[in-house]
Fold:
Amino acid sequence: MRLHNPKANARGDGAIKWVAIICILALAAVAAVLFSAQTRSKARMAELQAQQAALQAANQKLEEQQAAAEEARKVAPQDNIELVRLRGEVASLRPLQKQVQQLQTENQQLKTQIQQLQQANADTAALRSQNQQLQGAIQSKAQTDACIANLRNIEAAKAAWAAQYQKQPIDVPTEFDLFGPGKPLPQKPVCPAGGIYTLGAVQARPACNIPGHAY
Structure:
């Protein structure tokens, strides 16, 4: 029969306690390590997510640039064709531009000639007006001279009538007395300007109603 030893039991309980403490400490250490690892894992995950988002944005931008480049490659030939066409049109317009410049020069020359002709026409019109005035003056002078000659002939006819029929200076002849066959004047004189003659007395000069037709 074994006897119960209190000291041995006490030592056994103490050892168990230390083992339990060590296990707790170990578990705490493991928990701390796991927590630290989990924290680092979360941080790394966040970093990776941020990098992935940046990578996706970069890929999207690259795709957009590639699409723009592709569109530019598609449009570029058309632009080149349009550029070539425009250059061809410009080249074809250059002769027309020269023709336009030549026409402008000729137009300016024509304007100068027209101005010269207008000035010549104005001078011609002035000369024509002066000529007409001169001709009018000459015609008027000729009519006046012819009318005065008629008045002198009428005066001579009155004198011949008075002498033939022994008329007094105050006697007034009629047209029947002076004009006609067998009379001092074969026919009645007519004023070239359309004036009307007044015979008057033998002692008076005959007159015309046109101003200036007098002697």
Observations:
- The two ends are 206 Å apart (CA to CA).
